[in-house]
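Lab notebook: predicted structure, single chain.

Context: the supervisor wants predicted structures on file for every construct in the current expression panel, including those that have not yet been purified. This is the next one on the list. No modifications to the sequence; it matches the entry in the shared construct table.
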Amino acid sequence: MSDSQSETLVFDDATLVRDLCGPTDSHLALIENAVSVRLDPRGNEISLTGGDHARLQAKAVLEQLYIRLENGRPVGRADVEGLLRIERSPKPVRAKREATGQALVLPKRTIGPRSAAQAEFMGQLATDELVFGVGPAGTGKTYLAVANAAQMLVSGQVERVILSRPAVEAGERIGFLPGDMKEKVDPYLRPLYDALYDVLHTDFVDRKIAAGEIEIAPLAFMRGRTLARAAIILDEAQNATVAQMKMFLTRFGENSRMAITGDPSQTDLPDPRQSGLADALGLLTNIEGVSVTRFSGEDVVRHRLVGEIVRAYDARDTKQVPSN
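Prediction complete. Output recorded below exactly as produced.
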């Protein structure tokens, strides 16, 4: 390109630069393809060739990757893709720089944001008492909410973690499932268990569950309780009715934090107009201490195809909306 220029990034540790570049320079290839820049590593240096904006984006990603490695955090393909997603988002430069610096440090892994919306969500979880995370599958809403709650428990900020989901049937009949009530509802709650076990050691989680310091229960079990000094999460909130949502939100106790996650477009309720998530979003978002992060198909971090699938459905549904 006619406006291409070159500059060189110099790092202190050539070993970390090798980790930054990835196996056979695969991390550099990701950055080159994403922002149309050429990257040439040599020892503790990386040469960048391309337009001004492309070099600026690539430089920001490379510097953040190096900082992660300096802090003892491994860098993989997903980390590179996440930083690229944040850097290319329309968020202001300052917000993007603050976003890449956020991290949840947990016993089994350190978790940083992989999209601008994830960064916003993590910031809100750290500061606000009631946080809504709404959007499609694969954007990390539930995982980040659980990881944040786990970090608060480990650090002593809360005494308990309460994780809940509505046990709403999605084309299947819970009454025909084998076992007692716990065995019937556990499959509905499995994603919450999976997220916990991914960030905390299995024996620690099992001990905390046995002691009642981690509780995973259907939404219906929350009635009549006051949840103080707890990190509280309601997942799949689009399947809570208006009455259930009001009941859950009023469980708030002293020194507690609450996160509500779900996808308003994916309710399994017979009448979607009964969804308590959509109702709460309309009622509560102007209250101090309440915040909302809205995820989109662009924030899907699960797998490239998931993002494509979400965008395809969104495009189809947009076309089907009748015009007035």
